[in-house]
Amino acid sequence: MTKEFSTVGVFGKRDSLDYEPLRIIAELLIKSGRQVLLEKKPAEALSLGEGFTRDEIGKKSDLIIIYGGDGTFLGVSRRMAHYDVPFIGINAGRLGFVTDIPSDKMVEEISEILSGHYYTDTRCLLEGIQIRDGKEIYRNVAVNEICVSRGNSGGMIEVSVSVNKLPMSRQRADGLIVSTPTGSTAYALSVGGPMIYPSVACTLLIPVAPHSLANRPIVIPENSLIEITVTDMRDATLYFDMQDNSEVLVGDIIKASPYPHRVKILHPSRHNYFDTLCKKLHWNYLPTDR
């Protein structure tokens, strides 16, 4: 019988030279009869061949394991979502909200998933396109959020927003976040946005420090086309998951819409999202619980 996930790509923290966790994961996979694909530096350090490019790993893998924090997971998964390969996240960072498997339990939890006992958690992504003078100048993908934010000068930005070609609002604020449900527990949460269950098909629009008491977050259908036109500012930046960015000028239009590919995260079968909210964000704690 063919093994599930016969070829597994493994990624670690981008700039880390500590390859011991990757060695442990690789040995587990090899002992279970699976082929392991690593990038060049860790492969050479662990004497596991010459290594592969990210594109080669994406094309060849049936499963990708990411060892690092949530930032590492976001960076790898959004760049490789178009290969439609499922991901496992091992937490070696601070919060570990998406990478929910603790590093000290990774052998046990990975073994459980490889044996077929897992829960598949499918997350939507956003694609953003920056238009200037009628031409596309930048395009990227986000798992959490696309954000237009004020720049170093500290002045507010002014934007007009339309949804599916219908005018929605004009705003003066420090920024505007377009968030997925996954991103609702990230930057969006810190500026007063609602928490959205990951499988809910929606997109959030959340102003950052708006200069109006009436400007509140809004939840719209996932399949919406959002167009943000920058009408006034000193300087501003367009961010994707707060990792990649592009300079914004007055008159630029940012189009945000659903990305056609999704990120599939494999969790141990006992995974409970509400438990994650309680443990990681201290949600729904009573005063007596503290």
From TrEMBL:
Keywords: ATP-binding, Cytoplasm, Kinase, NAD, NADP, Nucleotide-binding, Transferase. GO terms for biological process: NAD+ metabolic process; NADP+ biosynthetic process. It is found in: Cytoplasm. The keyword Kinase applies. It catalyses: NAD(+) + ATP = ADP + NADP(+) + H(+). NAD(+) binds at D70, G71, N144, E145, R172, D174, T185, A186, Y187, A188, L189, S190, A209, Q243. The active site is at D70. It is an enzyme of class 2 (transferase). It holds the Pfam family NAD_kinase. SUPFAM superfamilies: NAD kinase/diacylglycerol kinase-like. One of its GO terms (cellular component) is cytoplasm. Its EC number is 2.7.1.23. Its cofactor is a divalent metal cation. Its main location: cytoplasm. One of its GO terms (molecular function) is NAD+ kinase activity. Belongs to the NAD kinase family. Involved in the regulation of the intracellular balance of NAD and NADP, and is a key enzyme in the biosynthesis of NADP. Catalyzes specifically the phosphorylation on 2'-hydroxyl of the adenosine moiety of NAD to yield NADP. PANTHER family: NAD KINASE. This is NAD kinase. It comes from Parasutterella excrementihominis YIT 11859.
